[in-house]
Input
Amino acid sequence: MSNETEKPTKGFADFGLSETTLKALKKVNYETPSPIQAAFIPIAVTGKDCMGQAQTGTGKTASFVLPSLQAIDDRIPATQVLVLTPTRELSDQVNAEAQRLCHGTKCRTTSCVGGKDIRKQISDLKRGAQIAVGTPGRVLDLISRGVLDLSTLKIVILDEADRMLDIGFRPDIEKILRSCPAKRQTLLLSATMPPPVERLARRFMNEPERVDLSTKGIAATTVEQFCVTVDRNRKYELLTRVLFQEKPRQAIVFTRTKRGADALLKRLSRKLTKQIAVIHGDLQQRQRDRVLNGFREGNIRLLIATDVMGRGIDVSGVSHIINYDIPEFCDDYVHRIGRTGRMNGELGRGFTFVTPEEGEQLTNIEIRINGLLEPYTVPNFDAFEPRKPYDPEKAAEEREKAPPAPTRNGRFRRTALAARVV
Output
């Protein structure tokens, strides 16, 4: 069959990138652009404002770093590109990727995040780092200290914009954007585009073009997604059975709370491998860095995490995601599942534990991904406690024995008859 009608696949050389950048791409083995890169980069290199929407694990970082490199004059020692991200880990990751793609140029980068030595960050900025990547809080701190000068800024990038708004950074972001030069390029990338992100774009972007690849079902085609309905007090046993049955190469187990993550680590550490760790917001930054590095290097095979790990962390070896606690918001499900099946040609596997009371959350997730989670079976495992038959006489006895219900002020409620007697 002839292929004459097929559109030729565009490569990085077709996007107007410099020869130096193309050599850097070759050095890091970037051969074929991902869909978001192929759609976003040609717009961004023209200097237009652009909004890009795509699922996690699809190459969004290079989508904004590569156009930025074309706009930077590395002979000028001043900040020309500012990237805002929701977490310290994502800032460090974007900074590392920018350093790789800067190979062969004089461009310098720095990561501006809390929990790390601010003196080094100040030194990097004073030496003229052209790209600053950071979290909104630390960026505002450096601006107030007078060491992060935005007057020379050419491009502002909002990475994982929806997550930044989710965790309350909107006032900080708006304050930073108001401090930036009016004549600038603004790029925004996000996995979802809820109304708050749309409003932010309308207020601070100039007629942005929009690239939307969210409907391509990226997560659905690279991740096999399952659900298991289970009683709350049997979730732990279910987890151990799934891990034993699946034998994941590397897995992330998501919990809703930090306390739940710590409790799960304590129980699993007694029963399973020592290659296990926890990561959440209460850990000191150096601890989080040590855990994340160990996970990336493969020394940690099972990572228990809250949603601090739910966005933007690129660990390509993750084979399994387990939602021990179903996420409260369906968009968080998309981001958690996006930690596996990340552009390496292998299918990831995602599991979500659902208690009988959480049917509505499961329905919302399935509406969000436009698909159904397949039921997963664990042989010889009873997911539910045996239900005792209803005995009306025994139920009546238990009601008689029950103490009076307390009122709001802590005193026991008196019946109308008792009140009359008094």
Notes: The chain has two domains: 12-216, 218-375. The longest helix spans residues 88-101. The domain at 218-375 is CATH 3.40.50.300 (Rossmann fold). Confidence is low (pLDDT under 50) at residues 1-8, 408-422.
